[in-house]
Amino acid sequence: MKVVIVDYGAGNLPSVERALRALGAETKRATEPNQIAEAKAIILPGVGHFAAFVAGLRERDLTDSLRAANKAGVPILGICLGLQAMFASSEEAPGECGLGFFPQEIHALPAHVKSPHIGWNQVRLTRESSLLKGISPDAYFYFAHSFAAPATAESTVAACDHGFPFAAVIESNNLSAVQFHPEKSGETGVQVLRNFLESIK
Amino acid sequence: MTLARRIIPCLDVDGGRVVKGIEFAGLRDMGDPAEFAARYNREGADEIVVLDISASVEERVTFLETIRRVAAQLNIPLTAGGGIRQMEDGRAVLRAGADKVTVNTAAIERPELISELSRQFGAQAVVLSLDVKRKANSWEAYTRGGRQATGRDATEWAAEAVSRGAGEILVTSIDKDGTRSGFDCELTAKIAATVSVPVIASGGASTFDNFYEVFTAGAAEAALAASIFHEETHSIMALKNFLSERGVPIRTSR
């Protein structure tokens, strides 16, 4: 199983790669459009700023190839900022366009809660989830973010609360995304990645 | 559904080894950082902090290698710092496998460092390390490993650091550090009430009750300790079970 990891110039790729390899997957970093075009499964990892992410994709000419891959039904897993980049836009970078796989906007966490939302939190299942298969309902996941997709996004399968209910896990046809970091979420996170790899077999 | 309080073992490293400062007697070698990290990852730690206490330019290469070796053992977050003077130092630490970088002396001397790191890597990757000594009616920020008074009010500096983009504050009480007399809960509560980001308490941990107090009265989101974990005075899971039984939201699975 080969998984292509999008390398847009930031992000802690080694920990995602290490986690996937430990599960027997082969990983390859993609910095060019043709590498995305050939991919059978894609991971969009991400930390940092929404604007830096979309600029990083644009500079490497990866935006269109990712949109084409989505259209072709290639499985794509977004992690943290990678989830947010799948949306149309973000309050973090007004005027910047995301990949637009989902039409909504990413919102800032409100001022009355501690932000960034950093640490281990639980999620509430709203639909059956393939990524969370075999994971206890009271399991904890590691989050580190200041922006989030409102849980009203249609494809939300699990929500978390921090200021407002936000999408913790999204699944829709070939697309899946998590706001937490599975590669930093202990054994629970390993199970999420295992489930993703199972789903693309 | 509640954000869990975090238990964070801290590895003070020098020359690629975990060390413990002994009063008037220098440093004691405690072991291999990668071995400690693997053990804590297994035992249910929520995060690991690695601090280069030599903070010397000559030791940078060794420290980055330590981060790489530690990161390879973990599937939990890693924070690293000590001697971060400029943005490139921060980048090197993050590229070596840390998720967050701590800044201290250089940030108080040139606060723009925090803005630069935060713009580049995001607030979630920038931790202000704040060493504090109690004065008559206030708390003063110290630098250079707690040796240099700065004349700056700790709460005021914490607030500025957050406004510049620090995503967490690691508050160490110099008065309490190494005393095993409990965290300075008044200090952490004061900082937590001042800033909008999570506060990590450090300095003075000894008993399970100390952790309970800092998560309740001290309003800390996370608590850090070193030797009580290194010397296996306490197992992390036993501590977490103790806190969980008392109603502190905590992650007791792995």
Plain-language structure description:
The complex is a heterodimer of chains A (201) and B (254). Chain A is of the alpha/beta class. Chain A has one domain (2-199): Rossmann fold (3-Layer(aba) Sandwich), CATH 3.40.50. Helices cover 26% and strands 31% of the residues of chain A. In chain A, the strands form 3 sheets. Chain A has an 8-stranded mixed β-sheet with strand order 2-1-3-4-13-12-11-8. In chain A, strands 5-6-10 form a 3-stranded mixed β-sheet. Chain A starts with a strand and ends with a helix. By secondary structure, chain B is α/β, with parallel strands linked by helices. Chain B has one domain (6-245): Aldolase class I (TIM Barrel, Alpha-Beta Barrel), CATH 3.20.20.70. Helices cover 35% and strands 27% of the residues of chain B. An 8-stranded parallel beta barrel of chain B has the order 1-4-5-6-7-10-11-12, surrounded by 7 helices. Chain B starts with 5 loop residues before the first strand and ends in a 9-residue tail after the last helix. The chains are: A alpha/beta (201), B alpha/beta (254).
Shape, principal axes of CA atoms of chain B: globular
What is the number of helical segments of chain B per DSSP (H or I, 4+ residues)? 10
Strand content of chain B: 25-35%
CATH architecture of chain B: Alpha-Beta Barrel
Fraction of helical residues of chain A: 25-40%
Mean pLDDT of chain A, to the nearest integer, reads 95
Quick one: biggest sheet of chain A? Answer: 8 strands, mixed
Global mean pLDDT of chain B:
94
Distance between the termini of chain B: 17 Å
Percentage of residues in helical conformation of chain B: 25-40%
